[in-house]
Known about the structure:
The complex is a heterotrimer.
Chain A: E1 8-11, H1 15-25, E2 29-32, E3 48-51, E4 60-63, E5 66-70, H2 75-80, H3 82-96, H4 102-107, H5 110-116, H6 122-130, E6 133-138, E7 141-146, H7 147-152, H8 155-161, E8 163-169, E9 175-182, E10 189-200, E11 203-212, E12 219-220, H9 222-228, H10 235-248, H11 259-281
Parallel strand pairs in A: 1-3, 2-3
Antiparallel strand pairs in A: 4-5, 5-8, 6-7, 6-8, 9-10, 10-11, 11-12
Helix pairs in contact in A: 3-6, 10-11
Chain B: H1 21-25, E1 41-47, E2 53-59, H2 61-64, E3 69-74, E4 104-105, E5 111-117, H3 120-129, E6 131-136, H4 143-147, E7 170-178, H5 181-187, E8 190-198, E9 210-215, E10 221-225, H6 230-241, E11 248-251, H7 268-278, E12 282-285, H8 288-294, E13 301-309, E14 315-327, H9 333-342, E15 353-362, H10 376-394, H11 398-405, H12 414-418, H13 435-446, H14 448-453, E16 457-458, E17 461-471, E18 481-488, E19 494-498, H15 507-519, E20 526-529, H16 547-574, E21 581-584, E22 587-590, E23 596-598, H17 599-609, E24 616-622, E25 630-640, E26 646-656, H18 663-682, E27 714-717, H19 740-752, H20 763-775
Helix pairs in contact in B: 6-7, 9-10, 10-11, 10-19, 15-16, 16-17, 18-19
Chain C: E1 2-7, E2 10-15, H1 22-28, E3 47-50, E4 53-56, E5 69-71, H2 84-91, H3 101-114, H4 120-126, H5 138-152
Parallel strand pairs in C: 1-5
Antiparallel strand pairs in C: 1-2, 3-4, 3-5
Helix pairs in contact in C: 2-5
Bound molecules: flavin-adenine dinucleotide and FE2/S2 (inorganic) cluster (2 copies).
Amino acid sequence: MRLRGVKRYHWARDVDEALSLLSAYQGKGAILAGGVDLARSPRTDIEGLIDITGTELSYLRADSAGLRIGATTTLSAILDHPQAREYGGGVLIQTLRTVAYPALRNMATLGGAVVSAHPWADIPTLLVALGAEVTYQSPEGEKRLPLENLYQTDFRRVFREGVLVEVRLPPWEGAFAFAKITRNAGDIALLNVCAGLGLREGRIAWARVAVGARPARGERLTWLEAGLVGEPPTERLWEQVAQEVRARLEVGEDRRASAGWRREVAGVLVRRALAQAAGKAAL
Amino acid sequence: MAVVRSRTKEVVGQNVLKVDGLPLATGQPKYTMDMDLPGALIGKILYSPHAHAEILAIDTSEAERVPGVVCILHHGNVPRVPYTTAGQGWPEPSPYDTVLFDKKVRYVGDRVAAVAAETEEAALEALRKIRVEYKILPAVFSIDEALAPGAPVIHDEPDAQGIYDPQRNIAAAVDIVIGDLDRGFAESDVVVEETCEIPYSQHCALEPHAVWAYFDEDGRLVIRTSTQVPFHVRRIVSRVLGIPMARIRVVKPRIGGGFGSKQEVILEPVAAALALRTGRPVKMVLTREEVLVSSRTQHPYRVRVKLGARRDGVLHAIEMEALANTGAYGTHAGTVLYNVGSKSLPLYNKARHVRFHGKAVYTNLPIAGAYRGYGATQGFFALEVAMDELAEKLGLDPLELRLKNHIREGETSPIFERLGEGREGKAQIVRSCKLAEALRIGAERIGWQEKRRTPRREGSWAYGVGLACAMQGSGITGIDMAAATILMNEDGSFRLLVGATDLGTGSDTVLAQIAAEALGVPVEKIVVYSSDTDFTPFDKGAYASSTTYVSGNAVLRAAEEVKRQILAVASEILEEPVEELVLAQEKVVSLRTGKAVSLEEIGLRAMYVANQQHIAATASFACPESPPPFAAFFCEVAVDTETGVVKVERFVVAADCGQPIHPKLAEGQLEGAVAQGIGMALYEEMLFSERGSCVNRSFFDYRIPTALDLPEIETILVPSEEPTGPFGAKSIAEIGINGPLPAISNAIYHAVGVRLTRAPFTPERVLAALRAKERR
Amino acid sequence: MKVYFELNGKAQYVDVEPGESLLSLLRRLGMKSVKEGCGTGECGTCTVLLEGKPVRSCLTFAPKVQGKRVTTLEGLGTLEDPHPLQRAFVEAGAVQCGYCTPGMILTAYALLETNPEPTPYEVREYLVGNLCRCTGYRKIVDAVLLAAEWKREGRWR
Lengths: 283, 776, 157
Ligand SMILES: Cc1cc2nc3c(=O)[nH]c(=O)nc-3n(C[C@H](O)[C@H](O)[C@H](O)COP(=O)(O)OP(=O)(O)OC[C@H]3O[C@@H](n4cnc5c(N)ncnc54)[C@H](O)[C@@H]3O)c2cc1C
Ligand code: FES
Ligand code: FES
């Protein structure tokens, strides 16, 4: 296995150098983080690889504004980080330990997952539900915006000349839970859900729900979230939620699952994730 | 021959260290591709993008100009010799419907041309630059389409041989009747019918197909290859390329798994042809994608079983109809078809009226071939699901139903005689069978009675237990032959040369144990070498669960002859009659006087001193009968009624493989086969586009069980004494794969009341079945 | 380009192609225990340790090892002096065809470095990316637990 066509390998010293190399290659260069996607790519047009794992972007910091995770932080490093454990009711750990397998998590970076944004991937669903903000640098300067908004743009183009530097996760009072179904262990999701809520005086104060791999990339169900606020978290409510999701969720089919199965099971997974999040939030 | 006074076995039945264990565990370079040769070329294959097309023209001129390209082969520049890629005995039962490169392609992934180049890059670039003009033909992708009147004829070439009915796309067919089926069903009190279906799936040995072809210092062609059948490789390559067999040497190093996929002679003739044309060493390795798309698969089958029984539960009539999709070529088509019936129906020998009929049909999909279980898996899926249904209709415990009907020691079945290997078989009596015991032990282990009575439910999860039985064979009666050579070294150690092909199964160890036991030495004193057509005697190869039984018997015979020679020398030294001598613990002892002489003294004397001779023998064993191993499978599943997800919570298999020569290896065979069967039941299926192209062509998308998917498989060996087996042994390698499909399907039925008859039982299919049941 | 790294304790200064995989480099250097079962990260036969952590050498660009420590199975033990994990695999019957074994042992090694007392479930969880088609995993789990026991008893070097 090799990426055919590559002529040079660069170790970028910092983001600025990565940016100038990218522009020098005029579309024929690629940012390389963990490389697990690039190494599997059938592309033959990449001439220069620009490794950014030496640019001090591997970190995880917690403060009152939540978590800040550098783009080249590996999934394993997040899993091992004490401050990731508590966040969002433990949802980072719950999710990331089901992503692929240890050796892949030792290589794959959070930034790579954000940029490659596979439609079946769990990480976009997770981050969108969490309201992650991303910071990137491009020839036009630095920009920070919600990941959700970025995904609504032609973001792949952005990263043809830009570098993602950081992912910020806001603090939440409440908890999130993650659920997915795969064909077998270590497989990519047939459907994934991340849902969270906060409770105030026995009622739901806020709720966030994202569903991915349907087969399109994870997106929030804002129409569902709004209706949950003010309701008490009961079995009856979750049952209604399941029905509403079944009735309204946009799903499609691919070779791994039909639209019908996705529609029905999405309701179940959202119900389960919300119930689990409510249980954690009530602690 | 010396009177063997009874003594306990010292090596057989012990878990000695696997003879190749440490070399493998320390990563020694033992596999085909771990060797480098200077000046080697890389061979690559161009595959058809079309499911069915005629090649109008091939233009290689541009490809030839790629720097580093040395040779390009295609139908225009190789001899046309119809053959089969099935590595089987002779005369070959599979049709000769394949040539090296044809003017027609018959599936997406069919071989069009081959390139040898200095580097992989150059070879790949050349492949892109070969211009092929195709005339696309209508294609068929299912059994029904292929059999429909007016369907395109896939094998219309005039020189093909041995196809049952090429005009109707039927590669092979079978129809045998015993008794009177109509009467049988009319006389039955209860009749059930089930149809079960298995899709395209694959062996997935972790080592891809790999081969080296080169010429040695004497100008002989050496083929070092990852194969289960070195001697068949030599015979087939010789015929296809017109090279005398004496000029070919096939070497089998360590193999990274086979499961039948390497009982096919796929790459060897191509690599040999490239080496022949270029005079240079040629190396070919398939990528995983090539393995998935263009090597071999399991035979997809639709099997219908109809059972008739008397009120008391005794089977009276059985009909089994088997329809196979053999894909674009008929390798193993007929033999697998026969085995669907021959390896399953004898299990229930009480039925007086039996019909087995079926066809193996060509389609424009990948080539099905030999796969562990070899038809029995497909037969037992339908048979054992139907038995479950019959038990329900009769109001009998499925366990009871099996106990009432299964074959016993001393009994026979007419099937043995009527169904053989693509032709008639041979009558035989079952001389050893501990299935009843296996059923009882397995039932106890899983807690059958209690779990059957009170199905458990936890939230949306429903639990259930199911069982299935299976048998297999031990080699192919009247066809399989193996030979072994044992040579004594003058220090009292031995060389055991076998053509038997250890492909990871541990057969080298088992054969060494058999030799060691017979020769009264520890296993460390036996150096095993397998297999090299120049140095090891003939062996049919590793398939049909034959190695322990057939090759093992050959080893035992050779060892007995060597022992005879040893005792003769000892008798000279000790000056005592052979009848008084016993060989044990590396020496020969006189029972009368207690005098002893060591093997080393015997070896030295024979080699250098008196009556000089090399103590050595070669012996053959041809398989007169094929004693079946038996197994009972029990599993507990959990079904998520809201999502359709199925988890196998427990899996118990109790098997009678005769006397296990190496219990741990036998367990390992069972565990691996069960795991593979669970994969087939829950995950594995090759999917195709509308144009017949395999779409899940990687492990990313073709899922096989991981460590987390499987429960701790509980294996129980229930020994019997097979009088014809070496030290009482029968086979164990395949049988384990026959149980999981029906056992899991039956357990799902117990849990949630729906019958899954189409594998794999994906969340989607399970949920659909649940919803369909609710609507009823 | 040139890459400098440590392979099984020995310094290496070698030429690599910028798009080359670590798998290809290591096999070129004679480390034939590193196997290619898929080439796309999904089987685990090419697993090696990079700075002590398991990675997939088929998905690792060779230049990435610059200045780092790489361990292959050859670096763990030898035929004459096998590592206890290697012995445990043979004793437990965890080696059938052996093609998955190098990746399994290295992954298990990394597990036992961080978790000396794993439960059977934790072993399975850690090995989930290493496929084995021969054993059904049971004896592999046994082998890892056996080696863990030996390690706790101080029988590792
Ligand atoms: C076998 C396998 C299984 C997987 N299973 C799962 C799963 O279960 N769940 C899940 O959510 N995901 C899964 N993934 C996806 C995985 O999380 C991502 O592939 C991985 O995180 C990519 O990270 P990387 O650093 O290796 O990316 P790279 O391969 O280095 O890069 C990927 C892409 O992003 C670009 N890029 C990387 N970093 C930056 C940056 N900072 N700025 C700009 N561009 C950048 C690269 O140019 C490239 O185009 C799986 C992937 C594989 C290969
Ligand atoms: S070869 Fe690297 S994971 Fe399969
Ligand atoms: S031992 Fe063969 S793949 Fe694991």
